[in-house]
């Protein structure tokens, strides 16, 4: 591909990504992978160059651009070399007209910025994320794994965490293939640690997805006890089985919940759990380092729906706890409505619960919980709180 053709390819891809963000379609990474599957003529250098252009354009535009060309024109107005590739050549983009609109540079959509928790450093939300790993204690420990991954550095305060540079191809390593490490942001590892799961306990991961945190809980439980991974989406839960097999965490049970009728499938577990983790569906505002186009997807109406759903999930999670048990509420969101205020509202709605003070190597106290941010902690952004059932 010529350099100009790469720019046009990036514009075409941005059109797809913008459309998907507007209509609830697939993620940018999925669209990029599909695009190149259908265009075998693009070599690996072409693919990398196009991908970099696409992500540079996504990162610099807070608001969803009108179309792919506007996204790329905005970028080109800041980069003379890129602007020169709008040359009207056969496969390249047409020259930029002086009055042509280009996407405006920004980090956070205007409507959303005031909703962030006050301590959040909004200018650090779009940085580059490293690859964090969790060493699988079911099979090994950090001292044994570190020599297999010479570039990895240990993260202080998190005994199982290693960090590799951004883009490190860890899934090609023998350590990953053998289940010795899982890719998991240090913030997620801290949330699993805040659950304080122990061998022999009954632990429910209520919004388990593909089981990232379930696997961390399994390791903390040393493979002993009842660990139940529940979710409403079958395809997500299905992805847990091969991961659990690779991690030798075969004792995990999975439970498919019926959206809106979750309590039915959970009835036998009422009052039984020592720990329930609610890693709730959320705006994902803490994960823009990895999914920068997520900010083009969020709308005020969607945020309202998420806040209502989080409250509903907390309400059917609460009766699952035994007296003395702990409900850990977490979101990878940095708006107060989804974090601090959500937990405060839960404590107002439910008598017999108290927030526990957590002493952790990262994060800042915020309301009844802890705030982790890319700017302060170098992790994805999270809010989480540990609530104990006292009665
Ligand atoms: C933030 S993701 C979980 C990520 C996962 N815990 C991990 O560590 O990889 C939230 C999950 O909640 C699930 N979910 C949404 N509504 C739910 C509900 N009513 N009950 C249970 N799970 C739900 C979604 O399908 C999604 O997988």
Task: Give the secondary structure arrangement, pairings included.
Elements: H1 3-23, H2 28-37, H3 44-60, H4 68-76, H5 80-83, E1 131-135, H6 142-145, E2 153-154, E3 161-164, H7 174-177, E4 181-183, H8 186-194, E5 202-205, H9 212-220, E6 226-231, H10 234-238, H11 240-246, E7 252-256, H12 262-266, E8 273-279, H13 300-317, E9 321-331, H14 340-349, E10 353-355, E11 364-366, E12 369-372, H15 374-377, E13 382-389
Parallel strand pairs: 5-6, 5-8, 6-7, 8-9
Antiparallel strand pairs: 1-3, 1-4, 2-3, 9-13, 10-13, 11-12, 12-13
Helix pairs in contact: 1-2, 1-3, 1-4, 3-4, 8-9
S-adenosylmethionine binds at residues 188, 206-210, 212-213, 230-233, 236, 257, 259, 262, 279, 281, 313.
Brief synopsis:
The protein has helices spanning 3-23, 28-37, 44-60, 68-76, 80-83, 142-145, 174-177, 186-194, 212-220, 234-238, 240-246, 262-266, 300-317, 340-349, 374-377; strands at 131-135, 153-154, 161-164, 181-183, 202-205, 226-231, 252-256, 273-279, 321-331, 353-355, 364-366, 369-372, 382-389. The chain is α/β, with parallel strands linked by helices.
């Amino acid at each position: 591909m010529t350099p100009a053709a790469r720019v046009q390819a990036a514009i075409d891809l941005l059109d797809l990504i913008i459309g998907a963000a507007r209509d609830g379609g697939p993620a940018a990474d999925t669209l990029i992978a599909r695009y190149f599957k259908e265009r075998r003529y693009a070599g690996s250098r072409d693919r990398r160059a196009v991908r970099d252009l696409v992500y540079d354009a996504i990162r610099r535009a807070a608001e969803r651009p009108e179309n792919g060309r506007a996204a790329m024109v905005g970028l080109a107005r800041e980069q003379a070399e890129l602007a020169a590739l709008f040359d009207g050549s056969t496969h390249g983009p047409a020259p930029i007209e002086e009055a042509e609109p280009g996407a405006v540079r920004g980090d956070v959509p205007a409507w959303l910025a005031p909703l962030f928790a006050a301590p959040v450093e909004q200018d650090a939300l779009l940085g580059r994320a490293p690859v964090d790993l969790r060493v699988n204690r079911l099979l090994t420990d950090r001292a044994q794994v570190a020599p297999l991954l010479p570039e990895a550095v240990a993260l202080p305060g998190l005994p199982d965490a290693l960090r590799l540079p951004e883009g490190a191809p860890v899934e090609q390593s023998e350590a990953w293939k053998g289940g010795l490490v899982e890719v998991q942001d240090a913030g997620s590892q801290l949330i699993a640690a805040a659950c304080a799961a122990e061998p022999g306990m009954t632990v429910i991961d209520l919004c388990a997805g593909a089981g990232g945190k379930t696997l961390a809980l399994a390791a903390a439980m040393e493979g002993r006890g009842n660990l139940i991974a529940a979710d409403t989406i079958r395809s997500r839960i299905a992805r847990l089985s091969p991961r659990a097999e690779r991690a030798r965490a075969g004792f995990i049970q999975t439970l498919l919940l019926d959206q809106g009728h979750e309590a039915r499938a959970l009835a036998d577990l009422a009052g039984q759990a020592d720990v329930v983790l609610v890693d709730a569906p959320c705006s994902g505002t803490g994960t823009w380092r990895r999914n920068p186009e997520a900010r083009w997807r969020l709308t005020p109406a969607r945020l309202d729906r998420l806040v209502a759903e989080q409250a509903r999930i907390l309400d059917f999670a609460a009766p699952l706890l035994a007296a003395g048990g702990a409900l850990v509420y977490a979101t990878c969101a940095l708006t107060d409505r989804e974090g601090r205020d959500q937990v405060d509202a839960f404590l107002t709605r439910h008598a017999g619960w108290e927030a526990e003070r957590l002493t952790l190597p990262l994060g800042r106290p915020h309301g009844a919980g802890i705030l982790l941010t890319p700017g302060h902690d170098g992790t994805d952004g999270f809010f989480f709180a540990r609530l104990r059932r006292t009665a």
